Amino acid sequence: MRATVMYEAGDVRVEDVPDAGLIDSTDALVRVTRAAICGSDLWPYKSMPRDAQGRRMGHEFIGVVDAVGADVETVDVGDLVVSPFLWSDGSCVFCQEGLPSSCLHGGRYGWGDVDGGQGEAVRVPQADGTLVVLPVGADDALMPSLLTLTDVMGTGHHAAVAAKVGHGKTVAVVGDGAVGLCGVIASKRLGAEQVILLGSNPERTALGQAFGATDIVTERGEEAVERVRELTDDGAHSVLECVGLEQAVETALAIARPGGAIGRVGVPEQDATSTGVAFWKNASIGGGPAPVRAYIEELLPDVLEGRIEPGRVFDRIGSIEDVPDGYRAMNDREVLKFEIRP
Amino acid sequence: MRATVMYEAGDVRVEDVPDAGLIDSTDALVRVTRAAICGSDLWPYKSMPRDAQGRRMGHEFIGVVDAVGADVETVDVGDLVVSPFLWSDGSCVFCQEGLPSSCLHGGRYGWGDVDGGQGEAVRVPQADGTLVVLPVGADDALMPSLLTLTDVMGTGHHAAVAAKVGHGKTVAVVGDGAVGLCGVIASKRLGAEQVILLGSNPERTALGQAFGATDIVTERGEEAVERVRELTDDGAHSVLECVGLEQAVETALAIARPGGAIGRVGVPEQDATSTGVAFWKNASIGGGPAPVRAYIEELLPDVLEGRIEPGRVFDRIGSIEDVPDGYRAMNDREVLKFEIRP
């Protein structure tokens, strides 16, 4: 069969490869009817070192099931199916919690003995957990939109969910690529009132407006930050970072409102940063100076009724004149916390 | 009156300063009955450059109201009051949203003409928004615990809230200082099932156990990460970072479970990092590889019924043989997204 293979940056070929076929009893063999090139495919296209064996490419596809393994129950031969960009078993603890991208028994297309999606057919592992049957014909007019459910539309939606988009919120979307544009759709769908799209390509931002963007910011860097501040009172409640470059992350942080949320789906330029580590495990990082005034009223009854005893952290008491020695003692870790009775 | 003044790292003095007194009509004059030294006071104690004028210190205090301005309505002379570590008006948009730490008209103790809390008296600006009246006497046995509501207990609670602690969750608390220990209390109070405290001081971790910690990890760095992994299946659902040093942040990220949350309240060592910027505005950062399999079923009806049209991102279509040129065209930004019809 024909399939896409990348050998190094800039060297992508369509070649004859061994026909895809069932291996495990949980596999489905899918004949691809639609596929796509993803923005993330451009990362190796820009930077992949030479690999004599080549790497099979593609992870966005829809197709017709040609065969299924003995243990496949939810998918039949002849079904039109859509796959997410990762395969997953649907039954592990993370799949059950709605995080199939961290499936304990899942994996990536194009790696090991699993085909890529940019080819004529794909062996799909864990077919029951992975594939979703589509109730339309393979040439339905909705096919392009259904194809985005494999990745970019779901990724834009994930950015909006992580950025806590909701009714009446002000949203800023950083990036006018396919994911950013789908982030506009997702923000509008989740009830955002104002959707500011940051992008500089006129055709893409025009499509963003068609998708529901209320404002376009074509500036970059510090000028973009100022422009968003003009458009909002104190920044955006929700910021969707759909690029991945460090400058885009900095812009996203700068235009977020105090108490706001940044949903990050651009593949991080630098994995080693704190946010890069958090990205790959879909962890969120929150916090800052505590809004203690708001918490006093919540915690006060528990203290008054003796349910919590945080005062036990004080292990030394002194007068106001003892304060300098209190600093010394705390700094020397001789004292945990010093209480002053003036 | 007597008050604490810091002149440079290691040089803290208790001196005679001008008596505190009302200035604005929204002020209250509070005679301090209890105050404390905060872990964050140790940062200037370690590193403050020489300042000939000195800096007034302290932001954790309880006291009796001695006088109020003409516009103060909720606090009376003779009331025993507790203050959060920042003053705030209680009426701005951020105060109304539960984020008084970002009050548009608030500020810090010890700055400008506002007294510090480590002294005999404090002029409290925005008294109605800032102070909470306590229904006990000034020498009540609960005073140490009530004093923690000014900062450390509220800050530990904030870490737990930001880390999304809830019933049945596994929590890890990084740091056995007063905030970390209060984070243990907060985690237990919010229903955590397992609370792992990372700290090396035996007296402090013993207090942590009294507060509800179920496991103590005395190792640091990579060894601590391995130990937490042994104690949990896949890491902690919630991680409270209560130190602020970069190593502590790295440990917090490493021990978080996929899909987990890190609540960060340790004052960042490096303000310039992405997470440092987010910290000061209490913004959260979330996201990662989208759990697309979970989203397909949510988004599919909207595509099938035509409510969203993400397929409009495809602006070029080709066969499998056209794929190499599709990569080139997308990389040259000539094409937004390439659809393959094998």
Please explain how this structure is put together.
The structure is a homodimer of 342-residue chains. By secondary structure, the first copy, chain A, is α/β, with parallel strands linked by helices. Chain A is elongated and about 85 Å long. Chain A has three domains: 147 residues, Quinone Oxidoreductase, Chain A, domain 1 (Alpha-Beta Complex), CATH 3.90.180.10; 129 residues, Rossmann fold (3-Layer(aba) Sandwich); 49 residues, no CATH class. Chain A is built from twelve helices and 18 strands. In chain A, the strands form five sheets. A five-stranded antiparallel beta sheet of chain A has the order 9-3-5-6-10. The N and C termini of chain A lie far apart (84 Å). In chain A, helix 5 crosses helix 6 and helix 8 runs parallel beside helix 9. The interface between A and B is large, with 149 and 149 residues. Strand 16 of chain A pairs parallel with strand 15 of chain B.
Task: Give me some keywords for this one.
homodimer; 342 residues; Quinone Oxidoreductase, Chain A, domain 1; Rossmann fold; 3 domains; 18 strands; 24% strand; elongated
